[in-house]
Amino acid sequence: MPAELSVALWRGAEDGRYETYRVPRRESQTVLDVVSFVQRHIDPTLSYRFACRVGVCGSCAMTVNGKPRWTCRTHVAKVAGDGRLEIGPLENLPVIKDLATDMQAFFEKWQRAKGVFEPSRTRLDAIEEIRPDSPARRAADAAIECINCGVCYAACDTVRWNRDYLGPAALTRAWTLVNDERDAGVAARLQAVAAAGGCHACHSHQSCQELCPQALNPTAAIAGLKRRTLAAYLKGEIEP
To answer: Which part of the chain is CATH 1.10.1060.10?
Structure first.
């Protein structure tokens, strides 16, 4: 195992470039450890994001050797067998500086997909009982662990081709709420995700499923939305 890593880091904004640094190789080293070493010991002007360091917040997502990953959970030994790393910002998002991207469009699409719970009861009503083994609850549970890290969005070819596409994360959230029996916004949500740039724009390449750090399946969630929106249209519940 080489004593040092050759690390190419993206520097600058959209028109930046990769710069190479030499970083000591250590036992159980993560990619986030490498980035932090550069910022703390070589160049303090390096910009990047991180928070929890344990795979809970998702804020440290970057492109590592061509694939979007959580850098806090990606060990160097698994991705840099030859002692080389290339670390860049997430794709499909504007670069603010270095490894930090602007997530505004990502979260605006989450809002366009109506990813906010719409209560059907007030605090004065009795709590509705939802069976954990009901089909709707199982469908919601299968996608509920998304933390909006942006990895699926960065991996999505459809987002790259179609900037209006809502993306896997926003549609996965919509699918979760469509299957929440307590939610009162299903019709409006189905109308939103059936519009241009919605679920029917997905080409089912499954990059989102392959690279999701939470092992979720956004492709399956989007397929579910395609079926639900078609059924709603045939019943006259949404407009074409």
So the answer is: 104-234
Fold of 4-101: Ubiquitin-like (UB roll) (3.10.20)
> Is the CB of residue 185 less than 8 Å from the CB of residue 193?
no
pTM reported for the whole predicted model: 0.93
- Cα separations in angstroms, 97 against 11, 31, 40, 41: 7, 18, 17, 19
Domain 104-234 is of which CATH architecture? Orthogonal Bundle (1.10)
pLDDT tens, residue by residue, 88-147: 999 999 999 999 999 999 999 999 999 999 999 888 998 888 899 999 999 999 999 999
Virtual CA dihedral for 113, 115, 118, 123, nearest 10 degrees?
-170
Shortest CA distance to 26 belongs to which of 88, 73, 87, 83?
A: 83
Q: Does residue 18 contact residue 8 with C-beta atoms inside 8 Å? A: yes
- Strands (E) located in the chain: 4-11, 17-24, 61-64, 67-70, 84-88, 95-97, 100-101
Q: ∠ at Cα 95 (93, 96), nearest 5°? A: 130
Mean pLDDT of the chain: 95
CA gap 131, 183 in Å, rounded:
15
Judge whether 171 and 193 are in contact, CB under 8 Å. Answer: yes
The SS3 call for residue 161 is helix
Let me know: does 184 contact 176? Beta carbons within 8 Å: no
